[in-house]
Amino acid sequence: MTSSSWQRRQALPEPERGEDAFTLGRRLNALRKARHLTLAAVADAVGVAPSQLSLIENGKREAKLATVQALARHYGVSLEELLAGPTSRRTQLEIELEAYMRSPLATSRGLPPIRVGPRTPTEVLESMVALHREVLRLSEQHVATPEEARRANTVLRGQMHDRGNYYGELEAKASELLAGIRHDGGPAGTKEVNALVRHLGFTIRHVDDLPHSTRSVIDLRNHRIYLARQASTVGHDQRSVLLQALGHHVLGHTPPADYAEFLAQRVETNYLAGAITLPESGVVDLLRAGAAERDLAVDTIKEAYHVSWETAAHRVTNLATKHLGIPVHFAKVHDTGTVYKAYENDGTLFPMDPTGAIEGQPVCRQWASRQVFERGVPDEPFHQYTDTPAGTYWDTVRVERAPGGRYSLSLGTDFVNAKWFRGRDTRVRAKSTCPDEACCRRPPADLLAAWGGHVWPSARARTHMMAALPPGAFPGVDETEVYTFLQAHEADA
User: Closest by alpha carbon to 241, among 227, 223, 255, 261?
Assistant: First the structure.
């Protein structure tokens, strides 16, 4: 993400020229009325026609700079004061209501604008503004459908592809944070992460009643980070949980406006956590040393930085293309054959649905990420070359066990660049013609002849794929539970 994505996207659209004219007009109108002056008197004093001044005050005509300067002098205010903001509560309401009524949200909801005049009661303005605010709030908390989530994932994956999965601004932020605790560039362990927490002015509190829908909770009022006392039970390295929580703070994240922004923020915090735990300079040195020996391996990084194989593999996708010019792909695939997450910038043709989404799609049976379950030996590295319509690819694969089943984790590259990696000498080779259905999605002719039309399997419904995503600024988080938790711990010493 660019640095601008670290700031919350504005709830209202960027001001257009017409909206600027209206805002200035309302301020000029308020100043004139506060001084009990008529349109004719002010128009004569600054050398414009009364009708022209009326159009300016109503936002229907943009005033020339010379006219604005003349009006500011006549009202006895500086140009900066005139442009700084509303002069009264009513003027604020008029400007805010006008912005809401002109917004795409109001148009899309079919909300008709009302004409605001000097006789419009202030109570009516307050009521209208409150209603528009509520419409905006509800729109931000709309229920995201699985299709919306998949489309958001597709857009985000395209952005990652375009930049080679390298976020220079986040690498720089990680370096800045590590320099703040005088870190020497080696692995950032628990001691260093705790030092970073203190450096940023927070304290860590381990509790037994952390809200069930959260991995951590940051109390910005009291500068506390709450974690579950038994952090290992949630299946995450405490360093990552802490760093991801801090990431939202140091990157200036605010409640996401939609699911796409939620995903973007999650990518940013995950990336920053990885960049702190595995600093760029050290990992790049290992990658270059491995390539020089034609022994580049994820395991080398895993062992050097004491992280999971998956975390180390993600870091390779961040840095290999940027610093070594090696295109790569990564996939996490369930033992049922469905993609959990994936990334590529080497031309690998992952299966996708009509929206372009990869998640939830079945991977070819011939690919290494599925062959590992049939050919691989548990707990040992598995390597394979796969001939595909897009070219030949090499993969190194590991299998991990999780509460939801077994997952294969594969990192690979094209045939030309396989020469840099450990395991390139494998003799395991497969051929895939997917997306041709004859490859692995259509039953072999003999089985089809024997059983076609004589079976009716009852499919296991994957309800999580059909259910709408939980509403709210943070999908899946029970805000009432979080606020109740913080209230209960407010007085903690």
Answer: 227
The CA distance from 194 to 211, in Å, is 22
Burial zone of 448 (CB within 10 Å; 0-12 exposed, 13-18 middle, 19+ buried): exposed
pLDDT (tens digit, 0 to 9) for every residue of the chain, 493 residues total?
Answer: 433 333 333 333 333 334 467 778 878 888 888 888 998 999 999 999 988 898 888 777 888 888 888 998 998 888 877 776 556 788 888 888 887 887 777 776 778 888 888 888 999 989 998 988 888 776 655 545 666 777 788 888 888 999 999 999 999 999 999 999 998 777 888 889 999 999 999 999 999 899 888 888 999 889 999 988 864 433 446 788 889 888 988 999 887 877 788 889 999 999 999 999 999 999 999 999 999 999 999 999 999 999 999 999 999 999 999 999 999 999 999 999 999 999 999 999 999 887 788 888 899 999 999 999 998 787 789 999 999 999 999 999 999 988 778 999 999 999 999 999 999 999 999 999 998 888 887 777 888 788 877 787 765 545 444 444 444 445 567 778 888 989 999 888 6
Nearest CA to 316 out of 266, 260, 278 is that of 278
The whole-angstrom separation of Cα 454 and Cα 101 is 62
CB 316 within 8 A of CB 410: no
Q: Which residue in the block uniquely carries the two structure tokens 């994932």?
A: 153
Could you tell me if 308 and 237 are in contact, meaning their C-beta atoms sit under 8 angstroms apart? yes
- Strands lying side by side in the sheet with 216-219: 203-207, 224-228, 216-219
* CA-based torsion, 108, 109, 114, 116: positive or negative: negative
CA torsion angle 112 113 117 123 (round to 10): 70
Residue 178, Cβ density class (10 Å: 0-12 exposed, 13-18 middle, ≥19 buried): buried
| Cα–Cα dist 114/158, whole Å | 42
Query: Alpha-carbon distance 124 to 103, whole Å?
Result: 19
- What is the side-by-side order of every strand in the sheet holding 329-334? 339-344, 329-334, 405-414, 391-402, 382-388, 429-431
CA dist 422 and 111 (Å) reads: 62
Nearest to 293 by CA among 430, 431, 462, 420: 420
Q: Look up residue 442 and give its DSSP letter.
A: S
Q: Which of 92, 136, 85, 104 is nearest to 13 (CA)?
A: 104
End-to-end CA separation in angstroms for the chain = 38
- Between vectors from CA 427 to CA 426 and to CA 431, what angle results, nearest 5°? 110
CB-based contact 106:136 (threshold 8 Å): no
